[in-house]
Amino acid sequence: MMGAHVGIISPSTSSFFPRFPPTSLIKTKTRIKINTSPICSINMSMDPVREWILSEGKATKITKISPVGGGCINLASRYDTDSGSFFVKTNRSIGPSMFEAEAHGLGAMYETGTIRVPKPYKVGELPTGGSYIIMEFIEFGASRGNQSILGRKLAEMHKAGKSSKGFGFDVDNTIGSTPQINTWSSDWIQFYGEHRLGYQLKLASRQYGDSLIYERGQRLVKSIGKLFENVVIEPCLLHGDLWSGNISSDKNGEPVILDPACYYGHSEAEFGMSWCAGFGASFYNGYFEVMPKQPGFEERRDLYMLYHYLNHYNLFGSGYRSSAMSIIDDYLALLQA
User: Fold this and answer.
1) Exposure of 78 by Cβ count < 10 A (0-12 exposed, 13-18 middle, 19+ buried)?
2) Is 47 annotated in the active site?
3) Cα separation of 20 and 8, whole Å?
4) What InterPro entries does the record tag this protein with (predicted)?
5) Which of the following is catalytic: 241, 259, 329, 330?
6) Helix, strand, or coil here: 103?
């Protein structure tokens, strides 16, 4: 999602509340354990970030703290120490649930051992209100790196990151500042129709009173099964919000992806933000060398873009409505729905 690293939860009714993990979060699908025990004892540190870095972070001194730009929801800082650098995000408005969900996603991607992502270390509460996440600091290179390598590495992650639970994720998270519901399902078409397109359509109806896009969108949801005939769909670990702002490279030119909205889904859904990701032919060639293109890929491409156009409509207003409506109308004509 453009313009934000991660999001603030802002549902207006209880039916829109996502399932965030408890503060005793421990990864069950990966070996990474994120320490998220609440900071509530009488010995509470007034600076838990500094406390962790100087203890579990193995540093004896912090030499410099520098602001890092790029986000519009959280404050980001680089902590330089005598044992290396750490990347820290803080949010003074919300508890640790949002960062715990981010840590889940980063941890899952990290454990595939494929594409480089920042390793999450610690999530916790700030004593004056709000929360923080500490993760590995990655020194970025001058460019986004080789597109072909990015495509291959992403495909390797999709191939390695599988789930026996089906489609979804252990926790709900956010796409921008919109809740993203990840309740497990054995049926991808049902999952995508209900928890992706259906959720956004309901949000547009409630937020804008847009009955037209809701009604036409629901007609489409009931008909999308035709687009998946003769397609094998396996649950793959997805970054979930892969646009140019969440793609970089390290100082050695290896691709890096960050700020995820992870879940297990159809691999093609990863390209839903390709309209602002700048993927070229070499990216797709590299990807399909590892994950072969399936029949009907081109016909489904806009279906996966629709989720993100709807989300941008709900987040940023009517400037994205026409793109979403155009995709819906084109599919209704194609499917004769």
Assistant:
1) middle
2) no
3) 12
4) Fructo-/Ketosamine-3-kinase, Kinase-like_dom_sf
5) 241
6) helix
How long, in residues, is the chain? Answer: 337
Q: Is 260 exposed, middle or buried (0-12, 13-18, 19+ CB in 10 A)?
A: buried
* Global confidence as pTM: 0.87
- Tell me the β-bridge partners of 78: 66, 87
* CB 266, CB 233: distance < 8 Å: yes
Of the candidates 228, 231, 217, 250, the residue with the CA atom closest to the CA atom of residue 87: 250
Tell me: pLDDT of 32 over 80. no
State the Cα–Cα distance between residues 148 and 22, nearest whole angstrom. Answer: 39
CA distance 33 to 318: 42
Of residues 108, 103, 116, 113, the one with CA closest to residue 235:
108
Cβ-based burial of 25 (10 A; exposed 0-12, middle 13-18, buried ≥19): buried
For 322, what's the count of Cα atoms within 13 Å in the CB-facing half-sphere? 1
Whether residue 266 has pLDDT greater than 80? yes
**Residue 282 exposed, middle or buried by CB count within 10 Å (0-12, 13-18, 19+):** middle
As a whole number of angstroms, the distance between CA 135 and CA 74 comes to 14
Q: Which residue has the tokens 């207003």?
A: 317
Backbone angles phi, psi at 189, to 5 degrees: -60, -40
pLDDT tier for residue 45 given thresholds of 50, 70 and 90: low
**Are the CB atoms for 195 and 182 separated by under 8 Å?**
yes
Residues 141 and 248 sit within 8 Å (Cβ to Cβ): yes
